[in-house]
Amino acid sequence: MERPRLAMVIAGAIALACVAFVVVLFLVKILWAWTIPDLFPGAVEQGLVADSISWLTAVKIAIFAAILSGFSRTTHRA
Q1: Is residue 45 part of a domain?
Q2: For the chain, first and last CA: distance in Å?
Q3: Is 77 within a domain?
Q4: What angle do CA 70, 23, 72 make, to 5 degrees?
């Protein structure tokens, strides 16, 4: 592959990864706000559980979920 084409492929892959990252964070935020108040209405009313989360908290939850899914893949490998 020639250098300019390789650079374009790498740049495209990085851009795609960034877009996927933002979409995952958006989904985490939306799913939290949609499900948690329905699952734990009393805890949300009392302030024990947040009804919405910040972008930083969404990043932390996404990282935690990725780590858990990585562990589950390694332990169930045949």
Answers
A1: yes
A2: 37
A3: yes
A4: 10
Report the number of distinct structural domains present in the chain.
Answer: 1
Per the domain annotation, does 54 fall within a domain? yes
User: Of 26, 23, 29, which Cα lies nearest the Cα of 51?
Assistant: 29
Rounded distance between C-alpha atoms, residue 24 and residue 28, angstroms? 6
pTM assigned to the model:
0.72
- Residue 64: give the domain boundaries: 24-78
**Amino acid (1-letter code) at residue 10:** I
Listed in order, strand segments (DSSP E) in 1-78 are: none
pLDDT tens, 55-70? 999 999 999 988 988 8
* Interval 11-20: pLDDT, tens: 999 999 999 9
